[in-house]
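Duplicate of #3305? Posting structure anyway:
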């Protein structure tokens, strides 16, 4: 459950040796080669590449061989047999093509960003994810004949901080996009005041899950384009979120218990981390505040 929290405070992003203040609005985090336009491919063609500019290959099972199993680029003009609507952004997209290693593990692209995870922010990662259609490219890339690219092997789009996945789209577009279509993947991550990965470096991963399909629909390729990451301060307090982690769950009830104080006691004595559990602002934490917290509960029962 990602709901936006906190009131207007200036937040500073460390950006590759400099700082950029974001006092209110969203700010785009720089990404190298975000639309995969830097590696030029002939119009309408696709091409295996040893590497993709700005990105690092993620291949934990060592499945890539540069031929039958490869990363690369694809040039997608409108009317392309592979994606009739053309590229979502520019002319090119990245591809991860795994023809002979189905089911043996994921392969992807990753990029470490020059920024660290900041408190009281929401990150929104968007990526165009493509399910390529079968077809034969135009000359000079028609020498390979027709590729059977029916089906879809699944994907993940991940945002990491310090090597830990803090948010991801785990294949939600599978069954939504069809052969020959791109769809927009959106991952929103609300970061509270005390997230354990604060200060660690952000990273994006784009993954072909390489799930085994059928001989008729082998599902060997996923395409990616137009990667964008936006960060914005959490502006509105989420009532009941005492521990400021962007939800109201049992941890917040635990905090409320610690903050419990009757009228005879100093208000809010014992509250940790400056937590505010006096939701009705009557200078105590009692059953009325407990009832308010119950109304705001967003966690899983
Ligand atoms: Ca592009
Ligand atoms: Ca396909
Ligand atoms: Ca909470
Ligand atoms: Ca109260």
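Output from current build:
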């Amino acid at each position: 459950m990602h709901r936006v929290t906190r009131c207007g405070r200036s937040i500073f992003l460390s950006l590759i040796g400099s700082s950029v203040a974001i006092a209110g609005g969203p700010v785009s985090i720089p990404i190298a080669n975000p639309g995969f336009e830097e590696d030029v491919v002939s119009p309408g063609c696709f091409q295996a590449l040893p590497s993709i500019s700005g990105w690092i290959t993620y291949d934990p099972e060592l499945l890539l061989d540069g031929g039958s199993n490869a990363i690369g680029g694809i040039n997608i003009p409108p009317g392309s047999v592979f994606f009739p609507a053309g590229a979502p952004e520019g002319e090119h997209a990245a591809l991860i093509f795994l023809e002979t290693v189905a089911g043996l593990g994921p392969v992807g692209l990753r990029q470490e960003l020059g920024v660290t995870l900041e408190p009281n922010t929401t990150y929104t990662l968007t990526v165009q994810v493509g399910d390529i259609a079968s077809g034969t490219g135009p000359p000079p890339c028609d020498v390979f004949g027709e590729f059977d690219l029916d089906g879809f092997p699944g994907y993940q789009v991940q945002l990491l901080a310090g090597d830990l996945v803090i948010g991801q789209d785990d294949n939600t577009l599978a069954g939504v996009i069809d052969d020959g279509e791109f769809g927009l993947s959106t991952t929103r991550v609300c970061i509270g005041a005390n997230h354990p990965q604060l200060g660690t470096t952000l990273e994006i991963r784009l993954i072909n899950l390489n799930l085994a399909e059928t001989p008729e629909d082998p599902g060997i390729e996923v395409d990616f384009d137009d990667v964008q990451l936006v960060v914005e301060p959490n502006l509105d307090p989420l009532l009941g979120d005492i521990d400021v982690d962007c939800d109201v769950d049992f941890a917040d009830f635990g905090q409320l218990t610690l903050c419990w104080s009757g009228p005879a006691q100093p208000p809010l004595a014992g509250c940790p981390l400056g937590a505010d559990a006096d939701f009705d602002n009557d200078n105590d934490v009692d059953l009325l505040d407990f009832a308010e917290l119950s109304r705001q509960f967003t966690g899983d029962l």
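Confirmed duplicate; merging threads. The helical segments are 250-259, 287-296. DSSP finds two helices and 14 strands in the chain.
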